[in-house]
Design a protein that fits this description.
10-stranded mixed beta sheet; about 25% strand; two-stranded antiparallel ribbon; alpha+beta; Pseudouridine synthase
């Protein structure tokens, strides 16, 4: 479990009634309407026939009035900030912000990733990816695919195209790896992973989108670093999470002076001016 700190004092209700008895996850934010938990890498958010360990949903204490509800999801292998709604009205308000193209004044999702290769110098140090995605199904498996030319797809697949938009900026590179920061302006499945692949370097440890045979020996180096929401009710949610230890190790190879526990909790974490 990564070392965690909260950027703001939590209410007197410290989460004991939020989780099932004897079960807890680190809380980054807690109010009567919302909670942000620090989801560990390797933990699924929902139970499926393939999950062998407790999921985030199974940690949450069901309430008589319904809920709590997961506002969004993170891949099982992705660590990071996960938003939970404690009221149905709060769920609807937050999901309205998450829907469609994002207004970054009211919602911001920042990710950190370590890429398994350096980027082509012609890309520069920052940019924006607007390549849409679509799902490919093969027998019992599926994955997302970037589609730079929609017209090249069969007409049967064009209706499945999902607009996707990601801002990115390099934080550093060393010894064949890149530390990159991503701002997801849409919330498509595997968006960060596929857009990194589209840049020319898959995320370190990504067994689905990497061509490297070494990917399976390394945990996925992807972190939902910070979350910012400005709700219509005037509630402002700001939460940040340091990287897990295995990812900190990779970051320190690029920036030796990086110490995860000293990373300031900046809430929105506005890396992009």
């Amino acid at each position: 479990m990564p070392h965690l700190m909260s950027q703001a004092p939590l209410p007197k209700e410290d989460g004991a009634r939020f989780f099932r008895k004897g079960m807890t996850l680190p809380l980054l934010y807690l109010s009567p309407h919302f909670a942000v938990i620090a989801k560990p890498a390797g933990m699924a958010v929902y139970p499926t026939k393939n999950t062998s360990h407790k999921t985030v949903e199974e940690y949450l204490q069901p309430q008589k009035r319904g809920g709590p509800w997961l506002v969004h999801r993170l891949d099982q292998d992705t660590a990071g900030c996960l938003l939970i709604a404690r009221r149905k009205t709060a769920l609807i308000a937050a999901q309205n912000l998450f829907a469609g193209i994002k207004n970054t004044k009211n919602l911001s999702k920042i990710y950190w990733a370590i890429l398994e290769d350096v980027l082509d110098p012609s890309l520069g140090d920052s940019g924006e990816i607007t390549v849409p995605l679509y799902k490919i199904r093969k027998k019992q498996k599926w994955f997302m695919q970037a589609c730079p030319d929609v017209n090249a797809l069969p007409s049967s697949l064009r209706k499945e195209i999902l607009p996707a938009k990601t801002k990115w900026k390099k934080r550093g590179e060393h010894n064949g790896k890149t530390w990159i920061e991503l701002e997801l302006l849409t919330g498509r499945t595997h968006q960060a992973r596929v857009h990194c692949q589209f840049l020319g370097a898959a995320i370190l440890g990504d067994t689905l989108y990497s061509q490297s045979t070494a990917a399976a020996s390394q945990p996925l180096c992807l972190l939902a670093r910070s979350l910012f929401l400005q709700l219509p009710s005037s509630e402002k949610i700001e939460a940040s999470m340091p990287p897990p230890d295995f990812m900190t190790t990779e970051i320190q190879k690029i920036h030796p002076d990086f110490i995860s526990s000293s990373v300031p909790f900046l809430g929105k974490d506005p890396f992009f001016p």
